[in-house]
Amino acid sequence: MKIPAWINAIASACDPRSYVHLFRLIHYYGYSHVRPRRRLQAGEGTGIAPNVSLRNGERIRMGRGCHVGERCFLWAGDTTGRIEIGDHVSLAPGVFITASDYQFVSGLPFREQPRLERDIRIGNDVWLGAGVVVTAGVTVGDGCIVGAGAVVTRDLPADCIAAGVPARVVGQRQEAGQIARV
């Protein structure tokens, strides 16, 4: 015999595990957004989507007029690694920026590996496309455009267009009125 949908709804609402899960979601949101958001420095006119994951907000600085899209991750290092983002930077949904990398020491379990923290600098007027990953120690020059899905493992010069895994320069931004050839 099939149980009516309304009975399943009542059973779900009465299940204490639903409320425990809700508490876990609120706790996650608190430690991944609310508390770190209070600690980061963001310039006037900067908007951050409500589901952005932040780590160590006291080591994240964003300039004026930035936009951080949905499901982005800005993870500064636990001790020293900083993330510096210039003015008028746009991060499309799903961008992942981390100032901390694991090292690979033989014989140690992955979770016990030492970390190498290095600062990340993203210049002014930069656009990182959907799903871009920026690794520790990288500088992205002013005016760069990084295509969706790229993995930035090395510095990118100013006004370049970069794409790929690993990201490489595939073009240059042009003066107003000119057409960029890629």
Write the layout of secondary structure elements.
Blueprint: H1 5-14, H2 16-39, E1 41-42, E2 47-48, E3 53-55, E4 60-62, E5 67-68, E6 73-75, E7 83-85, E8 90-91, E9 96-98, E10 100-102, E11 115-117, E12 120-122, E13 127-128, E14 133-134, E15 139-140, E16 145-146, E17 151-152, E18 160-163, E19 168-172
Parallel strand pairs: 1-4, 2-5, 3-6, 4-7, 5-8, 6-9, 7-12, 8-13, 9-14, 12-15, 13-16, 14-17, 16-18
Antiparallel strand pairs: 10-11, 18-19
Structural overview:
The protein is α/β, with parallel strands linked by helices and about 180 residues long. It has one domain: 3 Solenoid (UDP N-Acetylglucosamine Acyltransferase, domain 1). Helix content is about 20%, strand content about 30%. It contains 2 helices and 19 strands. The chain has a 7-stranded mixed β-sheet with strand order 2-5-8-13-16-18-19, with no helix packed on it. Strands 1-4-7-12-15 form a 5-stranded parallel β-sheet, covered by helices on one side. The longest helix has 24 residues, at about 15-40. It is globular. The mean pLDDT is about 90.
